[in-house]
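Lecture notes, unit on protein representations.

Consider one protein chain, 654 amino acids long.
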Amino acid sequence: MTATQPAAPTGTSAKPKLAFRPLPVPQVDVHGFWGDRVDAVAAKTAGILYDRCVEAHMLEQIDPDVPSPGVVIPFHVSDGFTARTVTTQMFWDSDWGKTIETAAYSLYRRRNPDLEKKIDAVIDMYGKLQQEDGYLSSWYQRIQPGLRWTNLRDCHELYCAGHLIEGAVAYFQATGKRKLLDIMSRYADHIADTFGPEPGKRKGYCGHEEIELALVRLARATGNDKYMKLAKYFIDQRGQQPHYFDEEALARGADPKDFHFKTYEYNQSHKPVREQDKVVGHAVRAMYLYSGMADIATEYGDDTLKVTLERLWDDLTTKSLYVTGGLGPSADNEGFTNDYDLPNETAYAETCASVGLVFWASRMLGMGPNARYADMMERALYNGSISGLSLDGSLFFYENPLESRGGHHRWKWHRCPCCPPNIGRMVASIGSYFYGLADDALAVHLYGDSSARFEIAGQQVSLVQASNYPWDGAIAIEIGPEAPIEFTLHLRIPAWCRKAALRVNGKLVDLEAATVDGYAAIRREWQKGDKVELDLEMSMARLFANPQVRQDIGRVALARGPLIYCVEETDNGGGLHRIALSRTARIEAHKEPNLLGGVVTLSAIGSRAETENWGADLYRSKPPVTQETNLKAVPYFAWDNRDPGEMLVWLREG
């Protein structure tokens, strides 16, 4: 495979000097914890995604050489009637885009000629399907021809284009093959000719955000600033009056008020983006929007967007975020409800939403190293997102509750299969989240066995990171420039770490003096073989929720380092709700190399309310007898990988 370095966009959006961009996947190799997960995706998940897309008849929809499959998934049924507006089949192009992206990163990880041949064939079909003017949508070409660009509010045309664009960029970077990149560039050209502020163009934007961050990636990969400007237009236009979704509804003869969710808060178009101060609506759409806004803020040095994003970040993280980094408590709108409404057993916490939070946090780091974003990126990565993928890479969670009575399990596929390829592409591209590169600086956002290759001031530099993170906090970094070169190395000091020590070539660094916004900055002339040692105490912690979170009052969650823990029935017996942990109980960590692929578990002595001597009464005046019990907790991401049973994150205190 050939690794292709993306071009820098030209023109007005040339990055501000202090902007940090992620290293492309081919420039980072991961091993250890994340290496095992990337290997699982490359060995199993990528092929499964393709096979299950085929099983769902998705291949037939994009192949112009076979008859159209027609409507395979019925239109959405709501309130007792069928609304002939939306079916998840409309989104199949997005599933192909994410599947291609997962395959691309997997092919970079390990050769798989059979999978590559299959993906090349899918790309060929899209090439045949594309119209002369560049338009490309399997749904509107094969199922509902003649209706393109008539319902951006509901029907995901631009969303599907975005995911295909991201797949095209990834496939080009990982394999060097340009065909899909050229196809999607022509489609992006068509979109740029159709939408924009210029007279005669449509003033629209997508009901499901995604195109924005995809266009930024396309601009970075091709160097064509037109795509960056189009991404900025979609951000700036959203929520402006007169409202585009009202106008397009009237144009197709529909009542603008007659749609399922009845509010533009659902797709974050209720206000222009710079006026928004509350995280509302569909959680995945919100995360994608904020990701695109952060990219544009970085590329244009736009402080108005930065201030807005900081305001929205504060709202999410102080009022509406699960301790696992999950978000969106409600299945009704797949999103947000009221402040501090964080039910555990019924938590929706869609895998895609936590993946979206990773996207947003990583893009906030484009504006400079800041641990408030990197810490949350880490929290969502290690907990709320990868819980959505089984350890062997074959099964998936759509919802990620924090409590289960034993009936919640991973599934093989889903009628709306957005989550499997989303978690697949994120895991397979995890190396791009480790590091951020600026003109004369490199930021290390994540720790773990990895190596990176990058260029500063025209000079090649290598960095090798050795660590058993997240199980151990000892991190050794070796710098290897081809010749001595001065730049700043930023190292994150996580907020969960109570004690840290930093040495450069054996000499202790004053962390307090060196740390800004949670990152220790080391500026020096680096020479080949320079060594940096960072020791992070893997602190165990009891976590408590804001008292306004009614579901967690009087409860405690356990954490070690970046990991949130849970108890499972297979280790602790049934009736987990009857277990209590006192605030004075000693918590111990244990390495268990033969459990769940090798983890560190937590143990403590707790108490359990017994039922044996209660009798048949539902209520009585005497409390239940409690017995001492040995409690064992495992990392939340690994639950439901053994015998089925109950699970609990928040334990009673007692």
